[in-house]
């Protein structure tokens, strides 16, 4: 468990750094590039994302799981790596040809989307799944620290107005490409060069395609909603939605970090048939996820009236409403992430996982089609909320006979109540006589205090003692 804690810290840093550039640069970009240019970039990226998906298929989960199973055997580790990667690279060549065959017919801004091809190259050389499977996150973190800081410097140095959209696209795309290439410097020490047969490569196709289905389903209510929003309204609406997501994804980054760390860990435990240990870890993970999503989610909702105008600038008032709709969906996303990465995928229950995501995607597409023409970006937010709720409910239904959900629910209730009470009490708390920064700081401090006090009061005496011991031990 010690290595899992360490890896969670590494992966948390990794995920936060991936989002740190948008978080730091968004206020600057909304004031220089403007919401229209940002929306155009987001719209183009949403399209290129589908080509990137075709290259990797289900590799992020499949490759992770396969490497975790054979990581103690260097020959099989090398065999798995080369057979999986050759398949990935071959898909990259096919997708590249397809991309340049259709780009001139589908996309208006040709120059922008030629630049975006760099993202496709990045996917061809992406071997994050290998290091995830080995549970080695240090290399991932180190490269991100250096490259992300460099990208941030370039943005502030080179982006000065709405005409710099292409510069921004080059900076972001090249940053991603360098990120992926950097990892290849570490691969030589991990594997041996061995001969791979055609059958070794072919064996990965079917399971990869199966795990590609949930990737497509997730993309429908993560990426397709932006495409639908751009087609049915305008890129400015896409800009509002994308800008709100930059902040909302911060608590979700920590949830993703936990999932990426625990997937190989749980795969290894299930392979050893250590069911008691795995069940205990799921319970602990759910508590951690609920603590993160309720404290940060309800907290951001509560201070949104002060935070949004200060952070984004004028003209972004609609983001306040988006926060109220999208942030609660993070709670359902977090619970589903634990169930998915720590039970369904490690146990090979891919069909249940896929089914839940397909129904979530159907719900999202249906609601988007109805509400976007009437409500615009708010309709997309409602569709996303409903999709996350559907996915979470179905996954919990599938595991109800295998996991002690009632026990998990009783423990988790205190986090919901504490977060909601904090939200209600802080929502209309506003110190108008002081500066915006001090006002926001006071709201955050009071909100955090309310949340922690409620959490303490709702905890049992045993949990309170454990909390104190843990605090003083740390």
UniProtKB/TrEMBL annotation:
Q: Primary place of residence?
A: membrane
Superkingdom of origin: Bacteria
Q: Where is the signal peptide?
A: none
Question: Which residue ranges run through the membrane?
Answer: 12-30, 42-59, 80-107, 113-134, 141-159, 165-187, 208-224, 248-267, 288-312, 318-339, 351-371, 377-399, 411-431, 437-458
Question: What kind of membrane protein is this, topologically?
Answer: Multi-pass membrane protein
Question: Where would you find this protein in the cell?
Answer: Cell membrane
Query: Keywords, A to Z?
Result: Cell membrane, Membrane, Transmembrane, Transmembrane helix
Q: What is this protein called?
A: Oligosaccharide flippase family protein
| Source species of the chain | Streptococcus caledonicus
Query: Lineage of this protein's species?
Result: Bacteria, Bacillati, Bacillota, Bacilli, Lactobacillales
